[in-house]
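Human:
Focus on the backbone:
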Amino acid sequence: MFPLSGGVNSAMIDFINVSKVYKDNGAKALNNVTLHIDKGEFVFVVGASGAGKSTFLKTIMREEVPTSGEVVIDGQNLNKMKARKVPYYRRKLGIVFQDFRLIPTKTVYENVAFAMHVIGASQKDISRRVAYALTLVGLSAKAKNYPNQLSGGEQQRVALARALVNDAEIIIADEPTGNIDPEMSKDIVDLLEQININKKNTIIMVTHEVDLIRHYNKRVVTIKNGSVVSDTAHPEVARAASPEAVVNTPSGYYYAPTEDAEIEDFLKSYGSEDGEEKGFKLDTSAFRGE
């Protein structure tokens, strides 16, 4: 395949009696969820649209705070985390979207490097880490290409490299195969599996694709009406417990057209020191050549 190397880099995740009720409409998105994901685990999360998967992911990202219960990541209680600490915590996370979210005016190298520019990394570190991340995903030879010169599977590999470049401990892959064909889908999950095996990243992948879940012998967590209704290493058991949870429809979470401004807005709050402050405007002129 392609070389993968590197040290152990993972985090433990604990949901302890977590419930989430949204104040604006009273919707109960999570209902007394207790779940442990060990360091280095690879977990599929499935559930019908509106089941609570999005809120589950958002609490890990610390975009949402539980109404009751606790979310503890690698010993850190996210409920009690001060706002100024959130961007630093988010540097543990690498997030892969369904629609790639690459900046069309930047090369493959520049798209991956962008995530490091945002956190103020040195040029030396950027050069070293980007080269390494592109090697991990098998795209070193296409570093100078633009997104429109790549296949869908290759674009998703670039997105994965961007998620890995800051040495993320947790990879959150939300429907990462939703916009690519079945053969390329398997390639992406193969890649995630190899990264999981070799680097020990904790990987949480939300998917509706039945064939992928069946193909890989991974833990499957099924969420229905905000509750975990099945948690098993046997995909068929999970599907039998909630057959409507696994369907070939997009999850809708963070599904939107790719725009430069949107990428900047997202990245500025995922690792930049001032990302949580109101009115903060990320200066990206240096990255655009302005």
